[in-house]
Design a protein that fits this description.
Length: 381
């Protein structure tokens, strides 16, 4: 075979480079959407299911709220994002600092044209609209109310209702802000004159029809089913039986128990939906922690994080499926990239749970709010 001419070789090289850019940008969007959701309780459905399950099973803890979760999760999110960027950059584009940061290199005509197109498309968006401004304000207000409800180091606004302790929760804030979306008009009040008649047009930011079509009702049903499953396990004494069978695991090192739990959950969530995975494993891992006399948060927090690490397959996560549908990725591209990020995620979570999360919840002390499971003479699983 004859060698390709220089022009054809250059074209092939550019196509390979652009193909790598397509792949890495698509994966960045999908993976960052998942990783960023780890930061808050409401960021992913798995975090929300964990918080509701934990607060229902351990009502006297009052330690998992929007603020405490943000404090423990923001370092995890930042570290995973940075390491994921390094991994994807090396895997698809190589790691050349000079080209990455444009050290001593001027923009080519093609790059300047691309930047011009991006600027033109940005200008077409126009100024920020009134509904967008209101949405941003309501979002900031909701975040502030979540943080200040019960920050821990000072009394929060929930202390203003001492007679109704326990009624002011994070759900209260979400419901109030959600109600405002149905009340605040989507447009500034416009006045049209027709002779002596004046007409005011009114449309809320969101209508019930729009809410009904966009609301993920399956999450609410799944969460409710999880609560019913947990109550059934407790009433039927199934959770106690599972705890007694899991007691022998107490002979293993704690870090190994946590690692095994993380690996199992991460593997299952690749083939099952994240909400279904966390709903199945929470009623199992909670009795496990109680049986081996370990703070339940020591096992539940890593497992909750790892449930969101669905990076391997297009079907593992809705974000993966969306970017895969554009046709720039092959399944093996996502498998190679996702495997590395899965390993990064589990490693960072293990580092976090053994270091800075420990003093936040005093994890090495078995809490008074967790039940005491009497030891049994079981010899195996």
């Amino acid at each position: 075979k004859q060698n390709l001419p220089p022009a054809e070789t250059g074209r092939k090289s550019r196509e390979d480079k652009y193909s790598g850019i397509f792949k890495v940008m698509s994966l960045c969007v999908a993976y960052s959407a998942t990783i960023g959701g780890l930061t808050t309780i409401t960021g992913t459905s798995t975090n929300l299911i964990f918080a509701e399950h934990f607060n229902t099973r351990y009502p006297f803890c009052q330690c998992i709220n929007f603020g405490s979760w943000f404090i423990l999760s923001i370092p995890i999110t930042v570290i995973i994002l940075l390491l994921s960027w390094v991994w994807l950059q090396w895997l698809f584009l190589g790691f050349d600092f000079k080209n990455m940061f444009k050290c001593g290199k001027n923009k080519t005509a093609r790059e300047e044209a691309s930047a011009q197109v991006i600027q033109e498309e940005y200008k077409k968006l126009g100024p920020i609209s009134y509904p967008e401004i209101v949405t941003v304000i309501l979002f900031i207000l909701m975040t502030l109310l979540w943080f200040t409800r019960d920050p821990g180091f000072i009394p929060g606004w929930s202390s203003l209702f001492p007679k109704y302790k326990g009624y002011a929760t994070d759900s209260t804030t979400a419901l109030v802000i959600g109600l405002l979306f149905f009340i605040i008009p989507a447009k500034t009040f416009s006045r049209t004159s027709n002779g002596e008649n004046t007409v005011f047009g009114y449309t809320p930011l969101i209508t019930w029809k729009e809410f009904q079509s966009c609301m993920p009702w399956e999450i609410a049903i799944l969460v409710g089913g999880g609560f019913a499953l947990a109550d059934g396990c407790e009433v039927s004494k199934l959770s106690e039986w599972v705890a007694s069978k899991l007691t022998p695991l107490g002979s293993l090192p704690l870090w190994l128990i946590i690692l095994i739990s993380c690996l199992i959950v991460t593997s299952v969530t690749e083939v099952a939906s994240n909400p279904a995975t966390i709903t199945i494993f929470l009623p199992i891992l909670s009795p496990l922690a109680e049986a081996i006399h370990v703070n339940p948060l020591f096992i539940l927090i890593p497992a909750t994080f790892c449930t969101s690490f669905a990076f391997l397959l297009p079907v593992a996560n809705p974000a993966n499926a969306i970017v895969f549908s554009y046709g720039h990725l092959a399944v093996m591209d996502m498998v190679k990239a996702g495997l590395g990020i899965n390993i990064i995620g589990v490693a960072v979570v293990m580092l976090a749970i053994m270091t800075w999360i420990v003093p936040i919840f005093d994890l090495y002390t078995y809490p008074s709010w967790a039940p005491i499971i009497p030891s049994t003479n079981t010899t195996g699983l």
